[in-house]
């Protein structure tokens, strides 16, 4: 197989040519960023409100998480129902530094007036009282020991989700937990994590979580209109980079192998590939992407608390990818952006109520039902999701296997084969 | 035609120049969840606000303007609270916001309100330890609910051993922390205080109830102080009833169980257990009769009124009076005019807005009755709300006084303002 | 909403009121007693009410008992103007008044003129206690029982003699036993005679009652004290043991004024601040004092100059501890009584520990049966058919809401539950069949997509329930015969509702076994599960079988919903509380085997209770650790406790 691919195919074309969607996506993303910047309040004419810019910035982060979900589910066939846990961990990691640093400035200022110059212990106690006063303690839990350092917490954004995913994945894949079992297990993982964080004893302020994250330490004087644009740019950049990286990962031989794992794991194993290693890599890699997305998301949201990690969040992630279209990177982005913005619109009370005589349909109440049912409909009738529409333009089809099974994941695009 | 247009323009110009300030209509933001887990509690408050705004409009509006309620739905999603607050202040440009229920949602909104210099009225009993320049706390601080209830346990029921049961979140944590410290100062030994936290919606209470009963083994009278939230109360009271614990053996005083919560319960087995609030529907006063009547006429005969509704009632009326006094709805002017505002409580007596942004209100203790209402058995004088509790060492040195000191977190030891913005 | 007519009547009554009140005798002796203490009675605080109750109880007036009883029942009101007390009942148009001295009717008066006296439960207890003397020999056994309850709650020394006098005349066997037991308890507490106390204490050996421990524990109260010499009747305590650490020992010495207090960082800071002159303290630059070590050094300088208390060295601490004795003194009772009480308590404690374990096991079994009940429907749909139904929790919820709706229409609780169970089965059976027809049958070979689609259904159903029933918990009330609990002793008890759930779980297990092993349907289900094509060629219609099986599983979930709703609460989110646990139960037990599910439920339930027992102050942690444990468990036994082998495992 290795032999064959290297001789049969001519020199590989550059990534952009093999994946025209990459170029198209990057162009659309930069245009979008530019337009939003011009229309925004921070540097532009102020047509779009700061709160909407924040919504857009957050949506970009969700798109990035959806990309990761697509990679792990649409391409590798692992339906993880726990990736928002990694997203949340990323948010917590950066949130700890944001809270610590902001509080430290306040405490140092207030202690400067004291009769004696403060000892390091007094400063640390002061910060702890400020942060944990609301949950009834005034001591730093050990988990905060690195919170003073920006680079270390930044590293934690990548390392903690990565490590958790690695350990969890290693245990799960090693004992060949697959399919729905793995899904339920990942769901249990995220439930356990959120229950753990709900306890105040976890040291991360329990149900209150970390708040005030939109106020960047040292940048108190910069207005939120500017901060929001900065974060919007950062999110757009991260999404762009993430897209290219994911496209690169799925493009080469590696991509073929993971798709093969999705379609028939045992055959790939018999061909001599270490299926577990591939899965573990993808699982960990996507966890890291989610962590980064979370670290960009929560400073825009302003608050993170354990409810964000509840199992339902991860399920919504899967919903986005399914509606957008699995096994297409653009599908994930379309799904996440489309559904989450629509969700904001419907729950925001902007959607007009529909009166059917005896009853008035208020979208605030009925949107979730619509979402749930449309999800069922997509699974049943349009497993390719919205991305399926794009397939019609590009005339990309699933191969005709003369009635044989396409593999376990009908909804995903079988790209390589479809080309031939 | 031309003249008419001119006239209208002139009139508009005139009108905008005359009452000076507020461009009509004056917008009142309502930031309560209408969907999600908190919807049941908060929807009631949204309805309350709409009713209050309507009543005010019928009474002639404010500063010559109609009032308009701008309702948004933060959907019990804490980050969404911050987003919606920003939307209210920057997009809808409301003059005041009435909203929030949970502490975490308030903490989510705080930075936005402070950044944009908004004005928020927060109507729910909470854990204290906060005093924001931009928030008026019309619900009870711990010293207006928890401390008097504990005193009642100590003095009237002679409870010697305390079980502090709570849902694991910030309000029970902080309240229990304060109470632990308070009880120890009152001479209750540390080992006579049993603390337990359960998750939201907890349903398996048998072991915890058994533990509480077992506390009585050393011959001391046991009392339960419950900060159990929402649905979890259903299972808790069911288990209490099943265990045959009468209120005379082990009294339970709850801080989060009001008329609304009891509606989901069969109260026959709970008769005699207690709740502490600043308001009960059964309060005997003419103002309250009118209020309950108006509410039932609007919402239906089977609806009940509760404490946070009264808090909005007082808060809204104080705001109206303050704005009238200041002649504008400008936040800073209204804020200054708020200090010392007085308004009659529905339970009798007068609520006063203190410079620490809390109210002075009477504390009521009620016994649960078979019909799901409370029989008020104790009512104190007005207790001034204390932003920073006196019973925790690190808070005892702090005071809040926005009028004289201009600081919500003033350290009386170092005589300096710790911070102008709040903790969130 | 007062009608004009009513208003008029009321006005008349108000006018008539003064004459009415004159009819009331202000000179009646009991009214005089009440008037003497009017202030405290109206104030109604336990702290001050004592004399008023005592005066009434000892007044010797025949009507005192009635006054006390009606006061306790919140029937006594006070006239706001005249301050006279009356009995009153709410009646049309105001209050129906009665005289306190003879209960004669006075008439109807305006409510606003009177204030109801609301003795709180503390005062009611005191009144009950004062009523004991009247009621202990009351001809009505209920009143005698009330008197005993009052003594149990709040005993006084005077009760002992009264109780002893009331034992012989008691003809009700239960009450007599209660009286005798109570007499022994009061003897322990109040009797002057030490021998009698000792005998009473010994008689309680091995008794598990909380009241016994409540009586004995105060007797063994002790405290650790310190002096040069151990006094008589005290027990020496070793310093450095668990009873008394060295730090505690030194604190005791400081408290007793036998040693100087330790200087802590706060004291250091205060002393330094107090001695700041210019920008130095004791010659040290203030700016350099930003380390604890630097502050300590500066403090030492202050101490050397005599400006602060000297630091206490470790050497001095050791010396102080060595030169004193530490001992335990019993403060609750004389030493022999205390020691006897301790011996009896120790005996009881062993029993208590045993019984607590038994109680824990019962709790665990009960929780296991709840999990089993929640999971058994899944054991069918997931275990037998291999269909992942994430809306399973919502079927439980639907069952519970069905019960709620049935109760709205049928007020009789027993009947309503009997109707609710088949209704819940039918509703969820129907919903299950519908879902199978519309969604699941298209996805039989795509388990991941079944999972997702059923999630969609789950989200929609949950929101639908919210729209219909609101987010607030709805009551599902158990019939009276399920109220209360089976009390084995004061430690081991279990509520009847939990027993009912346990029995229901066993019934379901039996039902499952019979249906699967003894009926044609079961046979066909097994055939279709193992090989649908072969089954089809044998004349079985796999479509029909799948539909029925799924409906059956869903229907059972509905019945489970009624049971769970009875014991906990009915909310739109109750399903999601159980879904992950249910799947865990099935997966841990081993898919496709009902005994596995049973074992899984037992393991999950026991585990959760076990962890809760280890960490009683945080129930949330128990859930987290349990899930973690299950995750690990599945890593090592991916196919569950009872793993199917061979071909069935691949099905």
Give the key terms.
heterotrimer, A: mainly alpha, two-stranded antiparallel sheet, disordered N terminus, disordered C terminus, C: 651 residues, alpha+beta, 4 domains
Secondary structure blueprint with pairings:
The complex is a heterotrimer of chains A (420), B (424) and C (651).
Chain A: H1 2-8, H2 15-18, H3 20-39, H4 50-75, H5 83-111, H6 120-132, H7 150-174, H8 179-198, E1 210-211, H9 224-251, H10 253-263, H11 265-270, H12 275-301, E2 303-304, H13 311-324, H14 329-347, E3 354-355, E4 360-361, H15 363-381, H16 387-394, H17 415-419
Antiparallel strand pairs in A: 1-2, 3-4
Chain B: H1 2-17, E1 26-31, H2 39-58, E2 67-72, H3 78-91, E3 96-99, H4 103-115, E4 120-122, E5 135-137, H5 146-155, E6 161-167, H6 170-185, E7 193-198, H7 206-214, E8 222-227, H8 232-242, E9 252-254, H9 259-262, E10 274-277, H10 286-299, H11 307-326, H12 331-338, E11 342-344, E12 350-353, E13 359-368, E14 374-384, H13 393-396, E15 398-401, E16 407-411, E17 416-417
Parallel strand pairs in B: 1-2, 1-3, 3-4, 4-5, 6-7, 6-8, 8-9, 9-10
Antiparallel strand pairs in B: 10-13, 11-12, 12-13, 13-14, 15-16, 16-17
Helix pairs in contact in B: 2-11, 3-4, 11-12
Chain C: H1 4-22, H2 29-36, H3 38-43, H4 46-58, H5 64-72, E1 76-79, E2 85-91, E3 94-99, E4 105-109, E5 114-116, H6 121-135, H7 141-153, H8 157-167, H9 173-190, H10 194-203, H11 210-216, E6 222-227, E7 234-236, H12 246-255, H13 265-274, E8 276-277, E9 280-281, E10 284-285, H14 292-304, H15 314-322, E11 325-330, H16 335-384, H17 392-409, H18 413-438, H19 447-469, E12 485-487, E13 493-495, H20 496-518, H21 520-530, H22 532-537, H23 542-567, H24 574-589, H25 594-614, H26 619-636, H27 647-650
Antiparallel strand pairs in C: 1-2, 1-5, 2-3, 3-4, 6-11, 7-11, 8-9, 9-10, 12-13
Helix pairs in contact in C: 4-6, 5-6, 6-7, 7-9, 8-9, 9-10, 9-11, 10-16, 13-14, 16-20, 16-23, 16-24, 16-25, 17-18, 17-19, 17-23, 17-24, 18-23, 20-21, 20-23, 21-23, 24-25, 24-26, 25-26
């Amino acid at each position: 197989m290795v032999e064959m691919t290297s001789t049969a195919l001519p020199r590989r074309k550059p990534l952009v040519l093999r994946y025209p969607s990459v170029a198209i996506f990057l162009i659309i993303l930069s245009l979008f960023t530019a337009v939003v910047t011009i229309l925004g309040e921070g540097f532009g004419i102020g047509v779009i409100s700061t709160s909407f810019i924040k919504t857009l910035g957050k949506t970009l982060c969700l798109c990035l998480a959806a990309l990761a979900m697509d990679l792990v589910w649409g391409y590798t066939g692992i339906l993880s129902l726990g990736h928002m846990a990694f997203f949340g961990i990323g948010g917590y990691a950066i949130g700890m530094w944001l809270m610590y640093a902001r509080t430290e400035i306040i405490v140092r200022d207030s202690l400067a007036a004291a009769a004696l110059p403060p000892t390091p212990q007094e400063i640390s106690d002061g910060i702890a009282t400020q942060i944990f006063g609301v949950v009834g303690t005034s001591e730093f839990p050990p988990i905060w020991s690195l919170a003073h350092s920006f680079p270390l917490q930044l590293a934690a954004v990548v390392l903690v989700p990565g490590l958790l995913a690695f350990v969890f994945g290693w245990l799960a894949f090693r004992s060949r937990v697959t399919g729905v079992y793995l899904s339920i297990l990942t769901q249990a993982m995220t439930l356990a994590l959120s229950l753990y964080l709900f306890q105040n004893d976890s040291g991360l302020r329990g149900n209150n979580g970390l708040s005030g994250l939109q106020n960047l330490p040292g940048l108190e004087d910069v207005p939120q209109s500017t901060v929001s644009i900065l974060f919007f740019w950062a999110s757009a950049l991260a999404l762009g980079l993430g897209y290219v990286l994911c496209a690169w990962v799925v493009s080469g031989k590696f991509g073929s192998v993971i798709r093969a794992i999705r379609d028939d794991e045992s055959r790939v194993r018999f061909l001599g590939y270490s299926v577990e290693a591939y899965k573990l890599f993808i699982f960990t890699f996507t966890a890291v992407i989610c962590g980064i997305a979370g670290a960009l998301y929560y400073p825009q949201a302003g608050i993170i608390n354990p409810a964000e990690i509840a199992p339902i969040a991860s399920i919504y992630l899967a919903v986005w990818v399914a509606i957008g279209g699995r096994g297409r990177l653009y599908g994930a982005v379309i799904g996440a952006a489309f559904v989450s913005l629509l969700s904001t619109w419907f729950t925001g009370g902007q959607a007009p109520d529909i009166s059917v005589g005896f009853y008035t349909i208020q979208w605030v109440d009925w949107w979730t039902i619509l979402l749930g049912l449309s999800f069922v409909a997509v699974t049943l009738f349009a497993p390719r999701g919205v991305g399926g529409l794009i397939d019609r333009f590009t005339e990309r089809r699933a191969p005709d296997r003369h009635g044989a099974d396409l593999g376990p994941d009908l909804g995903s695009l079988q790209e390589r084969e479809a080309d031939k | 035609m031309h003249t008419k247009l001119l006239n209208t323009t002139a009139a508009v110009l005139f009108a905008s120049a005359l009452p000076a300030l507020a461009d009509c209509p004056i917008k009142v933001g309502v930031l309560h969840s209408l969907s999600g887990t908190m919807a049941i509690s908060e929807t009631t408050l949204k309805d309350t606000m709409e009713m209050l705004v309507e009543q005010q409009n019928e009474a002639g509006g404010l500063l010559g303007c109609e009032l308009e309620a701008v309702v948004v739905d933060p959907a019990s999603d804490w980050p969404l609270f911050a987003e919606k607050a920003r939307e209210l202040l920057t997009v809808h440009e409301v003059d005041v916001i009435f909203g929030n229920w949970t502490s975490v949602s308030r903490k989510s909104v705080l930075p936005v309100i402070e950044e944009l210099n908004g004005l928020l009225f927060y109507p729910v009993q909470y854990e204290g330890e906060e005093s924001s320049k931009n928030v008026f706390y019309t619900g009870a601080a711990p010293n207006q609910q928890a401390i008097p209830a504990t005193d009642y346990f100590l003095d009237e029921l002679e409870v010697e051993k305390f079980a502090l049961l709570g849902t694991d979140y910030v309000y029970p944590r902080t309240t229990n922390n304060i109470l632990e410290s308070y009880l120890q100062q009152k001479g209750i030994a540390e080992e006579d205080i049993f603390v337990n936290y359960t998750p939201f919606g907890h349903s398996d209470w048998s072991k915890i109830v058994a533990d509480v009963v077992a506390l009585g083994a050393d011959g001391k009278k046991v009392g339960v102080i419950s900060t159990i939230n929402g649905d979890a109360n259903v299972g808790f009271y069911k288990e209490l009833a099943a265990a045959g614990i009468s209120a005379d053996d082990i009294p339970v005083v709850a801080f989060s169980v009001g008329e609304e919560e009891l509606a989901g319960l069969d109260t026959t087995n709970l008769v005699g257990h207690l709740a502490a609030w600043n308001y009960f529907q059964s309060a005997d006063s003419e103002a309250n009769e009118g209020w309950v009547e108006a509410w039932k006429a609007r919402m239906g005969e089977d609806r009940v009124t509760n404490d946070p509704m009264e808090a909005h009632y007082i808060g809204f009326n104080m705001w109206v009076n303050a704005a009238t006094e200041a002649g504008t709805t400008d936040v800073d002017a209204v804020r200054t005019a708020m200090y010392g505002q007085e308004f009659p409580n529905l339970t009798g007596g007068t609520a006063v807005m203190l410079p620490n942004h809390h109210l002075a209100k009477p504390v009521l203790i009620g016994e649960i009755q078979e019909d799901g209402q409370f029989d008020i058995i104790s009512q104190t004088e007005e207790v001034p709300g204390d932003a920073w509790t006196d019973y925790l060492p690190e808070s005892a040195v702090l005071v809040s006084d926005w009028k004289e000191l201009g600081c919500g977190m003033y350290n009386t030891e170092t005589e300096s303002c710790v911070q102008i913005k709040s903790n969130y | 909403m007062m009608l004009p007519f009513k208003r008029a009547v009321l006005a008349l009554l108000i006018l008539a009121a003064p004459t009415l009140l004159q009819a009331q005798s202000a000179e009646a002796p009991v009214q005089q007693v009440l008037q003497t203490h009017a202030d405290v009675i109206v104030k109604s605080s336990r702290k001050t009410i004592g004399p008023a109750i005592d005066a009434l109880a000892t007044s010797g007036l025949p009507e005192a008992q009635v006054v006390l009883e009606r006061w306790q029942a919140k029937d006594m009101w006070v006239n706001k103007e005249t301050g006279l007390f009356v009995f009153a009942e709410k009646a049309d148009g105001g209050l129906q008044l009665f005289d306190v001295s003879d209960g004669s009717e006075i008439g109807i008066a305006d409510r606003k003129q009177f204030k109801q006296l609301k003795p709180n439960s503390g005062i009611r207890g005191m009144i009950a206690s004062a009523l004991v003397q009247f009621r202990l020999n009351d001809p009505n056994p209920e009143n005698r029982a009330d008197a005993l309850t009052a003594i149990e709650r709040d005993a006084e020394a005077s009760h002992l003699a009264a109780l002893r006098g009331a034992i012989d005349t008691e003809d009700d066997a239960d009450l007599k036993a209660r009286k005798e037991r109570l007499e022994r308890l009061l003897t322990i507490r109040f009797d002057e005679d030490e021998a009698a106390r000792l005998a009473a204490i010994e008689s309680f050996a091995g008794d598990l009652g909380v009241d016994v421990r409540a009586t004995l524990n105060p007797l063994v109260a002790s405290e650790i004290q310190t002096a040069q010499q151990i006094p008589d009747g005290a027990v020496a305590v070793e310093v450095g043991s668990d009873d008394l650490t060295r730090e505690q020992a030194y604190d005791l010495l400081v408290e007793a004024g036998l040693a100087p207090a330790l200087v802590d960082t706060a004291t250091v800071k205060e002393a330094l601040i107090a001695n700041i002159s210019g920008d130095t303290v004791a010659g040290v630059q203030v700016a350099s004092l930003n380390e604890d070590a630097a502050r300590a050094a500066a403090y030492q300088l202050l101490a050397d100059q005599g400006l602060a208390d000297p630091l206490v060295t470790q050497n001095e601490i050791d010396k102080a501890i060595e030169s004193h004795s530490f001992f335990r003194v019993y403060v609750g009772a004389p030493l022999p009584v205390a020691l006897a009480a301790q011996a009896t308590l120790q005996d009881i404690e062993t029993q208590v520990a045993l019984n607590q374990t038994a109680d824990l096991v019962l709790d665990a079994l009960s929780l296991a049966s709840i999990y089993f009940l929640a999971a058994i429907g899944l054991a069918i749909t997931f275990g037998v058919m291999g269909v992942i139904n994430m809306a399973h929790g919502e079927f439980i919820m639907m069952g519970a809401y069905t019960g709620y709706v049935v109760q709205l229409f049928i007020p009789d609780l027993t009947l309503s539950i009997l109707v609710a169970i088949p209704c819940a089965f039918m509703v969820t059976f129907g919903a299950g069949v519908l879902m199978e027809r519309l969604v699941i049958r298209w996805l039989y070979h795509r388990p991941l997509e079944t999972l997702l689609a059923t999630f969609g259904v789950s989200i929609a159903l949950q929101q639908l329930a919210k729209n219909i029933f609101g987010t607030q918990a709805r009551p599902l009330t158990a019939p009276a015969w399920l109220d209360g609990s089976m009390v084995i002793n004061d430690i081991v008890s279990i509520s009847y509702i939990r027993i009912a759930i346990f029995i229901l779980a066993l019934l379901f297990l039996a039902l499952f076994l019979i249906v699967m092993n003894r009926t044609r349907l079961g046979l066909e289900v097994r055939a279709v599960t193992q090989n649908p094509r072969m089954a089809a060629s044998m004349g079985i219609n796999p479509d029909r079988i799948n539909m029925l099986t799924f409906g059956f599983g869903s229907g059972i979930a509905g019945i489970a919903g009624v049971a769970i709703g009875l014991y906990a609460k009915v909310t739109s989110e109750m399903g999601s509380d159980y879904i992950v646990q249910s799947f865990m139960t099935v997966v841990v037990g081993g898919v496709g085997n009902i005994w596995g599910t049973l074992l899984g439920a037992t393991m999950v339930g026991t585990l959760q209770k076990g962890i809760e027992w280890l960490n009683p102050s945080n129930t949330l942690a128990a859930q987290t650790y349990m899930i973690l444990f299950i995750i690990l468990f599945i890593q090592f036994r991916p196919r569950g406790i009872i793993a199917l082998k061979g071909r069935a495992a691949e099905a």
